Amino acid sequence: MLKNFRGRPSLKTVLQASTVAGLAAAVLATGIPVEISRSYAEAVNVQSPSVPSFANVVDAVSPAVVSVRVESRVKPASDDGDGFSFDFNGRGFDDLPDALKPFFRQFGEQQNRQNQEGQNQQRRFGHQGEGRLRPVAQGSGFFISEDGYVVTNNHVVSDGSAFVAVLNDGTELDAKLIGKDPRTDLAVLKIDGKGRKFTYVNWADDNKVRVGDWVVAVGNPFGLGGTVTAGIVSARGRDIGSGPYDDYLQVDAAVNRGNSGGPTFNLNGQVVGINTAIFSPSGGSVGIAFAIPASTAKDVVADLMKDGTVSRGYLGVQIQPVTKDIADSLGLSEANGALVVSAQEGTPGQKAGMKTGDVVTAVNGEPVKDARDLSRRIGAMTPGSKVELSVWRSGKAQSVTVELGTLPADQQASAGDDNSPQEPAQPPASEKALADLGLTVGPSDDGKGLAITGIDPNSDAADKGIKEGETITSVNNQDVSSADDVVRVINQAKKDGRTRALFQIQSKDGSRFVALPINGQG
User: Fold this and answer.
1) What is the CATH number of domain 206-307?
2) Looking at 67, 260, 342, 390, which residue is catalytic?
3) Which residues are CB-neighbours of 17 under 8 A, at least 6 positions away?
4) Does the annotation count 127 as an active-site position?
């Protein structure tokens, strides 16, 4: 027993001892065990700062996202149904070892059943040479209206004969292709829900989307079904070389095969973009994905829902970007706008007086950034509408009013395919040298332009991609037919204080402008 400093028991010690004695007496008297609790340290519980959750967004938008299964008619393996034949290095079935015969007999019977099934399917279709429907692609999509319109990618549905939309609850519904637009890689399907109203989503104003904003991608990667990934907007206005309408949002949310056509949402559950492509050396996500902006998709989808096609405004001019060198050669203060390489005969641009060498600097007073910008803006306008183009011509600003036509259905998607360029003329025997430019030229057979017969590999002309066999058709928008013409134009440009001259080069791939330095010419 503990004692105090005088050798007597302390009051506390006496009380503890009497309490224990009392408990012991109670146990002995009642026979009821008494549990004496022990004290333990508490489990780890860290109070972290609150972070945003995407759960509310996902709960709201998931019913509007579907998986798209694309099917096509595949021709049966055998059209005549004569049965399975076996050949192994010139030997027949009877030549096989006995141990292998059961395996190949079973394999042959399976092939025969498949061939017969294909023939029966073919008879049901009533089309000779066509086969049964088989899955050929899979992607993603989303409802844009409560009555069953679904947006997806053109490249998802382009090879399909039949389409199935799989809802997030597993329901499978047949879909009909309403229309598709290869230029923007968009397509619209329609599901007949027999009066059912579907959960759908709206477009965001992607002009308000900033680099660094959170986004959530929902789709069907690798056929796994509804899958959610999150990330941020990495960049805007990306050009990936797929056509003149490139203006993609770049996101770092994980996007893989099967996500194509699926939506990317902001935190308000609005669609800011439609996943369409990824950059990946491995084939899987490396954090670089591209989405069609809502501002582009909104108008295209509305046209597809209405008419099944997209009508675009049409100028009918071949254009190219204005580089700094080209801007210097034309006397422009900034390398902005779109340079007209040629105006096709009979097109709206040619009828309005647009000429080779014009630089379109604005549309209806709004500055034009580059050739892609002009293509997108003209294409977004209604055919038949009148637009005012600001052009830079011969060192002066002018205005041209054009009534837009309709982009031909068979028009290619590139900005510079409105012309059918002629083959370059063969050089004659006599040649004249423009040594300071690195060019050897001679008059063409028809007297129009100069045939390039030689290139100094160490020259600026070679660095700019000019090649032997191409043709110089003009310099600073003035036609040339001899080396003397070229020198005369260059000398005038030097007097005007310019350091570069603008050469129009014709090749089998088309016409283009190249700015070459003229400091050494005289």
Assistant:
1) 2.40.10.10
2) 260
3) 1
4) no
What homologous superfamily is domain 432-517 in, according to CATH? PDZ domain (2.30.42.10)
Catalytic site residue 185? yes
**Nearest-CA neighbor of 480 among 519, 420, 509, 437?**
437
Question: Does residue 247 carry a catalytic annotation?
Answer: no
Distance CA 476, CA 503 (A): 6
CA 380 from centre of chain: 18
Please name which of 122, 43, 53, 51 lies closest in space to residue 81, comparing C-alpha atoms: 122
Q: Which one of the listed residues 67, 155, 181, 418 is annotated catalytic? A: 155
CA atoms within 13 A on the CB side of 154: 15
Question: What CATH number should be reported for the domain whose range is 313-406?
Answer: 2.30.42.10
32-51 tens-digit pLDDT: 555 556 667 889 888 877 77
Model pLDDT for residues 201-259, shown as the tens digit of each residue: 999 998 899 999 999 999 999 888 889 999 999 999 888 777 777 889 999 999 998 99
* Catalytic residue, candidates 181, 185, 418, 485: 185
**Ranges 165-174, 454-463, 497-506, most confident:** 165-174
